Amino acid sequence: MESRVFFFGGGRSEVASPDKAFLGGKGANLCKMAGLGVPVPPGVVIPTTVCNEYSSLKKLPEGLMDEVKTKLQDVNRETGRTFGSGDKPLLVSVRSGAPISMPGMMDTILNLGLNEETKRGIALETGNDRFVEDSHRRFIQMFGNVVMGIKHELFEEILEEHKEKAGAAVDTELDASALRELIVEYRQLVKK
């Protein structure tokens, strides 16, 4: 079977001739830069053909997640971090792409891989619990909105309630404890 997931980073790309129609603009450009030796964060790219396959099947193609997990091992090696580990956890961004630039039209999910175990590891590394909790609440909000189709406004309403309760004018005034309480409600919203 032909590969459906390609690694880039560390001065190399598994795609010899990155094509925007095949990889989307972001994917093609990252693969091209990595292949030229430009320092880009390592990652993987899934071609647009897989999106077409998903659209026709109405589910992920057979074996795709196994391929993603295998290629993530390359990212783990390149970064010295491990996806899903509490010790030096690797967090990833999931970005959609198209052959042409469409600013503001394509969704992104940041901090994929954050969970209670990885949060502890990052908190130990950074010494900043508030940063970790805020990253987690943002991840839940993005995932809930982009993947599960939960309206952004529902998350914002919960956030506003917690800001009011804490006497906070802006998000950054919520401390780690307040953010943990907020995360509990975000999770309840996602579970509905």
* Separation of the first and last Cα atoms: 39 Å
Q: What is the gyration radius calculated from CA atoms?
A: 18 Å
Approximate strand percentage: 5-15%
Number of strands: 7
The gross shape turns out to be globular
Can you identify the CATH class of the largest domain?
A: Mainly Alpha
The amount of helix comes to 40-55%
Main sheet strand line-up:
2-1-3
Number of domains: 2
What is the architecture of the largest domain at the second tier of CATH? Up-down Bundle
Which fold name corresponds to the CATH topology of the largest domain? Answer: Acyl-CoA Binding Protein
Q: Quaternary status of these chains?
A: single chain
**Number of helical stretches of at least 4 residues:** 7
SSE ordering: EEHEHHEEEEHHHH
